[in-house]
Amino acid sequence: MTSDILIIGGGAAGLMAAYGAGSALFRAGKTAQVTVLEKMPRPGRKIMITGKGRCNFTNVKSWNDFSRHIRTNPNVLRPAFYNLTPQALISLFAANGMRAVVERGDRAFPASYHASDVVDTLVRMAGKVGANLVQDASVDSIKYQENKKLYSVTCSNGKEYTARVLILATGGLSYPSTGSTGDGYAWAESFGHTLTECFPSLTALVPDGYKSAKAAGTDGPKHIDRSVPMEKMGKYLCGNKLKNCGLRLVIDGNTSEEEFGDVEFTDGGIEGPVVFQVSRKAVKALRNGSKVYLELDLKAGVRASELSARLSELWKAIRSDERSRGRSEKNLLTVLLGKLLPWDLVDGFLFCHPEILPAKKGRNGRFFEVDLAALAVALQRWKMDIAGYVGYERCVVTAGGVAMSEIDPKTLSSKKQENVFFCGELLDMDADTGGFNLHLAFSTGYLAGQSASERV
Ligand SMILES: Cc1cc2nc3c(=O)[nH]c(=O)nc-3n(C[C@H](O)[C@H](O)[C@H](O)COP(=O)(O)OP(=O)(O)OC[C@H]3O[C@@H](n4cnc5c(N)ncnc54)[C@H](O)[C@@H]3O)c2cc1C
């Protein structure tokens, strides 16, 4: 089948590229065929799982604030951002039947809070401008016929497509079950592009002792697959969520980042918004062989002296309570911890901090005595050596990708191969959580589509 523009990948970037190309062609009064080839039986599989199924599709911050959340190459992405700003994206979706709501942190969601609305809207938009969406079309190979200036693309089902203009929108490597298996990297390399090393970002970190595997990775030496069984520490901590927690990332003895927010222990390790926030630096450091640890502050904002005084007061009250008579020191410590921590965390916290109840030698043999100073330190500086990280199987985004220096930022066309455009996570771009990644996929897709239409 012959097309004018062939888009490989029907995710956020690819579908928006189809709309960008189709609408620009329409405005220019050109008749041309735009085709999207999507590997999966349905398009936008990854969009369906974004924002826990609610899809935080953009963030309405101004460029100055938005760009601070982009971890690589923000300036290269500026033209794409201004070509489709968050407000323009919201208006575009609204004009196509999907209203949005903006929540805390300037994060925008579909008003229905259903990610499926975003996918349906994108598919509708692409269809409206005449783009042809082919599902179950997994591209196996791309060949360029120099003499004809034509790309021929072969799918695993044997079908062939040709086009003069190609847009690569195959995404990164995260959540391969959604179809994003990094296929575009090899094609980019075959066109002469350089790849910036890829690694998982916005991912769970695995504390030492949490999982049975030490370093088992397929995507890096410290990759500990989500499926690796938990050890005792993991079993104790898994399921606990901590609100308003301080978090410090320390790399080779130096504080690298400090955050404040929510933390979650899961079957993967430690995650949640603030851990995701520091995970990029942590993963990079682990892969480089650096020593990484996290320090949790469960009493953030409380002065150390205040906490010590409060602990002494509580401890005194517990010990002098009638009901404490005859109970073991460990038992009383559990009562104290119950007043300081979520109840489900108490056993895990104690397991991680044996120093709070050290064994001592007395006249009658061994006895245990609570060390309140050690408890105060444990509450505000809970140190966790990090053994590894959860990889592409469950990370939110892929850092690294097709080097931006070889792409024209104004058009997103390749500087290496004629009539090839790149967009979305395939590029060396990644950002924080909060709607930034999807916005980058949409805005680069839109720009790539519009620019491609000018080559028809
Ligand atoms: C769990 C999770 C939650 C997330 N939540 C958010 C959020 O709330 N907000 C946010 O901004 N970002 C979020 N993200 C990130 C965001 O989803 C991605 O950055 C974005 O989807 C990237 O878009 P893309 O089009 O570049 O790639 P993808 O969405 O990965 O799309 C690539 C498409 O290409 C197709 N494809 C791949 N290879 C081939 C091939 N050989 N032939 C044909 N088709 C192919 C794939 O099947 C896929 O459909 C989340 C990610 C995850 C994993």
Notes on the structure:
This protein has 456 residues and is α+β, with helices and mostly antiparallel strands. The chain folds into three domains: 5-199 and 401-453, FAD/NAD(P)-binding domain (3-Layer(bba) Sandwich); 205-300 and 382-389, no CATH class; 304-375, no CATH class. It has 14 helices and 23 strands. It has a six-stranded antiparallel sheet. Strand 21 (407-408) and strand 22 form a beta hairpin. Helix 4 (74-83) packs across helix 14. It is elongated. The protein starts with a strand and ends with a helix. Flavin-adenine dinucleotide is lined by residues 8-14, 37-40, 45-47, 49-51, 55-56, 137-139, 169-171, 174-175, 179-181, 183, 396-397, 424-425, 435-438, 441.
Which labels suit this protein?
456 residues; alpha+beta; FAD/NAD(P)-binding domain; six-stranded antiparallel sheet; five-stranded parallel sheet; 14 helices; 23 strands; 33% helix; elongated; binds flavin-adenine dinucleotide
